[in-house]
Amino acid sequence: MTMLAKQTLSRISLVAALALCLLLGDGLRNGASSASAQDVHVSGPLAGAPAVKELRLWRDMRLHVEPFFAFTIGDEYARSLIVGGEVRFHFLDWFGIGGWGGYSVAQLDTNLSKEIQAKGVTDDANRLNLPSRENFAQQVGRINWWSGVEVHFVPFRGKLAMFQKVFFDADLDFFVGAAFVGVEERANTEIRRDSLTTPQYCVPLGAADPGMGQRDVGCAGENAMAGTNSQLDRSTRTVIAPSFGVAFSAFFNEFLGIALRWRGIPFKYNTGGTDSSQQGTPGHNQIDSGDRLKQFNNMFSFGLIFVLPPKIKTTN
Fold first, then answer.
1. Coil, helix or strand for 114?
2. Kind of pairing, strands 234-253 and 216-217?
3. Which is nearest to 269 in space by CA: 285, 288, 245, 244?
4. pLDDT tens across 202-216, in order?
5. Residue 199, number of CB atoms within 10 A of its CB
6. How far, in Å, CA of 239 to CA of 287, rounded?
7. What are 241-251's pLDDT values in tens digits?
8. Dihedral sign (CA 44, 45, 49, 55)
9. pTM for the whole thing?
10. Rounded CA gap, 42 and 220, in Å?
């Protein structure tokens, strides 16, 4: 009896739920039909007026020229200070294309880099990674120049006020594209030792032994006859990577504005100039492309926008 009662209650509950769903669905359908059948009539001076009148088109068929100053964020060992420029042309007020480029004019050591220069371990076990504490800032990876092409979308815009006295138009600019980056890293090298009683020395990766008198003993350029310094020898390459970001733009008159921009560019490079991939593994005593680790490189910039032609267009 108990089992039959439970089954009966379950069936009744299911039927009641289905009936409720049908009633709600019919009510929503009828409500939607009645709502769609209603017309909103506007009377007075706003009758027949468009939703927006005399909308200022800051970007439509206009060229934006933007010199900027930028700095990188979240760097491990060195932060880049960048001076550059950007040019964008907008076919519509919400869509455009552009190109940008910049050059790293200075490098600032991070606190981690300063700690390594002061307290880094330079014994034989760590000889390849840190031949000399004093020169660590010269062995880290750096980004010398940046450039890219991007597509811009501007879905949000409005008017803002500061202290109810200064009013300006503002928008959010989302962009995505490809970046070309000039990377400088510590050159590929390997450390060798003939026996436990002879000192360690470094040579370019895969190179022949230059001989006893010309070896880079200690890997720090201490031998003037070696003609090489493993810690300071550099290599350069160009990296192609995706780029994306967002900018807040504010316009104070018809041809002048400012932009606060964040841009992310993920790619791999050897930030510390160390054997980071297999550090400490027996038989692996070299720095090569396998030591490049993925980095989420990003920068923040402040730019001054000049708009051409200087005369703005408005909608009817």
1. helix
2. unpaired
3. 288
4. 888 888 888 777 888
5. 13
6. 19
7. 999 999 999 99
8. negative
9. 0.77
10. 82
